[in-house]
Amino acid sequence: MIHTKGWRKPLAIFVYACLSLSSFVNGQSDAGTTYDAKAQAFEFDLGGVELSQDRFLDNQGRTLAYLKDIDVERLLYVFRTTHGLSTQQATPNGGWDSPDFPFRSHVQGHFLTAWAQCYAVLQDQTCYDRATYFVAELAKCQANNEAVGFTGGYVSGFPESEFAKLGNGTLTNGNVPYYAVHKTLAGILDVWRLTGDNTARDVLLSFASWVDNRTKSLSYDAMQKILQTEFGGMNDVLAEIYHQTGDEKWLTVAQRFDHAAVFDPLAAGKDEFDGLHANTQVPKWIGAAREYRATGDSRYLDIARNAWEFVVKSHTYAIGGNSQAEHFHAPNAIAAYLTNDTCEACNSYNMLKLTRELWLLDSDNTTYFDFYETSLLNHLLGQQNPDDSHGHITYFTPLNAGGRRGIGPAWGGGTWSTDYDSFWCCQGTALETNTKLMDSIYFHDDSTLFINLFMSSVLKWPEMGVTLTQSTTYPIGDTSQLKVSGQGDWTMKIRIPTWASGAELTLNGEPLSDVKATPGTYAEISRTWADGDVVEFRFPMSLRTIAANDDPSMVAIAYGPTVLCGNYGDQTLSGTPTLALDSIKRSSDSGLDFTSTADGKDVTLSAFYDAQGYNYNVYWTTTGNFDQA
Ligand SMILES: *[C@@H]1O[C@H](CO)[C@@H](O)[C@H](O)[C@H]1NC(C)=O
Ligand SMILES: *[C@@H]1O[C@H](CO)[C@@H](O)[C@H](O)[C@H]1NC(C)=O
Ligand SMILES: *[C@@H]1O[C@H](CO)[C@@H](O)[C@H](O)[C@H]1NC(C)=O
Ligand SMILES: *[C@@H]1O[C@H](CO)[C@@H](O)[C@H](O)[C@H]1NC(C)=O
């Protein structure tokens, strides 16, 4: 059919060129077939979707400015010193990349992914050059291993002896060495698959071979003990290397990183998250989803689905983020933990990846993208500071009364990230988020185009000879226009968000009265499309409350998909304000500002994604009911 292999199209070409013919024929095709047999829908190439001018594109622009400005020599510093090479007079970085930080060199993998995505999205030469130069320099580090007494394939900013300490239980400096290795592998993999760079393939497979050599003779128990220390998504990236190469060896290595203490309760349907470090777990579940696709073993799917279900339903705040002080608490403990260190951003970055994976396996289910939209719009979009030309970010998103973005723990400077003195995990994942904002708007199968997110953008669907232009001011406006160029028979499926009762669809100005637009389903339009056809939809928005699971009297306010917050300027709040629901009135159609009264005083409510530079309030106690005439 049109798309027998779900893998991004150009890859097949790269892989063909990179590997021997027999490994392509015997390996990649098998791996690809098993993998794709499980999928009900497929992603488009990153370069197939272009964002048009809107709030999301602005975020992308600021992140791109940072990616192109940052001094690559400084990012190479810890790798070069560790591998005995000249640092070329570069200044060492500060923050989580400083030469004495235990897992220095974790952030560079995020830069590699972000540069590769920048290239894939925009064909940007600067990003391409940075990605391939960096990988070539890593190859030199790898080539010098023998001289510094490391075993073959190792590439890192800290010495290999950290792994021996991890293995013999003497690691005492808080290092998470496999966490950093995961980031580096994932970054190099993305450079390989998004640019086709052969050096990236060689460095990657050699480093993966180092992981194999380091772990293959360990007993199961010894390995499980190592997995007690945060290791990112080692199972995920190795399953992806299997998928990319077709070599079963990598699947075996991936499965060595299956963490039984976390997987077993999930497979049994038990939420045992209370007290666990949150972001340590999420990448393991993404790995489980990918191991399901690689093996067909439904236990992996149960693990990933149950994890998703528990987190989203019992551990997630109204803005789509989870965790407090980086940890999970008892199920439904939400109002109990409204503090200045809620919602670590990496968790949402990883939950979005997991959500996307699970939806690909269950593409009729709108629940996944209802969550995806909530979290992307209300948590991650506003994680970036729009007043900063390099798009710096906040680690936590405080949800205490009178909270403020850019407030964090002392080690985070209590502020926004910086060019050279932060390099937190959340800064790294934000580089990735803001260079792939378009990757989940559209998906397809052989005859269907799914529209999951509502963002101004242009999609090219070459297999169908279709270009689709989405024009919208959503979520400020409640309509979106989808203009089709090209003709043919296919089905358009539009996600109708669960809150969107009364959704209306038109085709070329005429109501589509025979198309069901039920909230929480996909509206399905099957026809022979003609060039110039225009579908328009309207999702009437209204005010609604989102109650904390553990305290129905504590609610956040949303308008359509957008969580609103009160603007308190520089005022501190001593407790939860009480909002008069019947006082809330929208001030203008061109923005998401509302007038309201809380504790007897006027308060402006605005989109939480735009709440930077002031103290805000998200969770309220309330009086009365909405007055939505
Ligand atoms: C891993 O070990 C095998 C067998 O000893 C060896 O052939 C291979 O070169 C090693 N990998 C690396 C990256 O050194
Ligand atoms: C653990 O490994 C480290 C690094 O190789 C080594 O220095 C240390 O002596 C080992 N400790 C034990 C108890 O084996
Ligand atoms: C965050 O909250 C804690 C506990 O209430 C407090 O000690 C700390 O000073 C707050 N930090 C900031 C930056 O507001
Ligand atoms: C959709 O997925 C969610 C999350 O796994 C699940 O709770 C729900 O039952 C699914 N809905 C349907 C109709 O299968």
TrEMBL record:
Residues 448-541 form the Non-reducing end beta-L-arabinofuranosidase-like GH127 middle domain. Pfam families: Beta-AFase-like_GH127_cat, Glyco_hydro127M. The keyword Ribonucleoprotein does not apply. It comes from the Eukaryota. Residues 1-27 form the signal peptide. PANTHER family: PROLINE-TRNA LIGASE (DUF1680). This is Uncharacterized protein. The lineage of its organism: Eukaryota, Fungi, Dikarya, Ascomycota, Pezizomycotina.
